[in-house]
Design a protein that fits this description.
The protein has about 180 residues and is of the alpha+beta class. It has three helices and six strands; from the N terminus they run αββββαββα. β1 and β2 form a beta hairpin. α1 packs antiparallel against α3.
Length: about 180
C-alpha cells in the first residue's frame, strides 16, 4: 500500500539535508583554516627572539569603510645582527564604545593593552629569520585577538555540531516517511 506524505514533511527533510551539506562544507573550511593557522602559529613560535621597544602605539579607525571600528597600530624597533629594524604590529578590530555590541566593551582590551605599553616599553618578539622586519609578540605580550586557533576551534566545533544535528533531523525525517 502506498502511503501519501504531506508535502511540508518532504520540504523540511530536504531543507535539513541541504543545511547539513552547507554546515558540512563550513566544517571542512573551518578545519582547513584552523590547521593552517595553527601550523603558522607553531612555526612563528620557533623564530628567534629579540627585545623590541615601542616607538609609538595608538588606536586607529579602520579604513575599510566600516565605520566605528578601531585597531591597535604599533611601531616597534629592535636590533638583529647589528641592524636596527623597524616593524609594525596590528591587533584585531573592535567596535567603538558608541556602537551596540555583544559582548559589551570590546574595545576595552585594546585600550588596556595600549595603557600597558607606552612609548619605550620593551616587548619580546619572535622575528622571521628570513625577513627580520616581520615580527610577532611572544605569548605573554600578544596583542588582543591573537592567537586565532582558540577562536577557530570554537567555530569548527559549532559547525560540526550543526552539521551532525541537521543530519540527524534529515535522517529522522526520512525514517519517519518509511513507516
Amino acid at each position: 500500500m502506498t502511503r501519501l506524505v504531506p508535502k511540508n514533511q518532504l520540504t523540511w527533510r530536504g531543507m535539513a539535508a541541504l543545511l547539513a551539506v552547507l554546515a558540512g562544507l563550513c566544517t571542512i573550511f573551518a578545519l582547513v583554516v584552523t590547521v593552517a593557522e595553527r601550523w603558522q602559529e607553531h612555526a612563528q613560535a620557533q623564530w628567534p627572539v629579540a627585545t623590541a621597544r615601542v616607538e609609538r602605539c595608538s588606536l586607529r579607525p579602520t579604513s575599510t569603510g566600516r565605520r566605528n571600528r578601531y585597531y591597535i597600530d604599533c611601531r616597534l624597533s629592535y636590533e638583529v645582527g647589528g641592524k636596527q629594524i623597524l616593524t609594525k604590529l596590528y591587533s584585531r578590530t573592535a567596535p567603538g564604545p558608541e556602537v551596540w555590541q555583544y559582548p559589551p566593551n570590546q574595545i576595552g582590551p585594546l585600550q588596556e593593552w595600549l595603557d600597558k605599553h607606552p612609548r619605550g616599553t620593551p616587548i619580546t618578539v619572535h622575528y622571521d629569520p628570513k625577513n627580520p622586519g616581520k615580527a610577532i609578540p611572544v605569548a605573554g605580550e600578544l596583542l588582543p585577538g591573537r592567537p586565532r586557533t582558540p577562536s577557530n576551534l570554537k567555530l569548527l566545533g559549532t559547525a560540526a555540531i550543526c552539521c551532525l544535528v541537521l543530519l540527524a533531523i534529515a535522517r529522522a525525517g526520512s525514517e519517519r516517511l518509511r513507516c
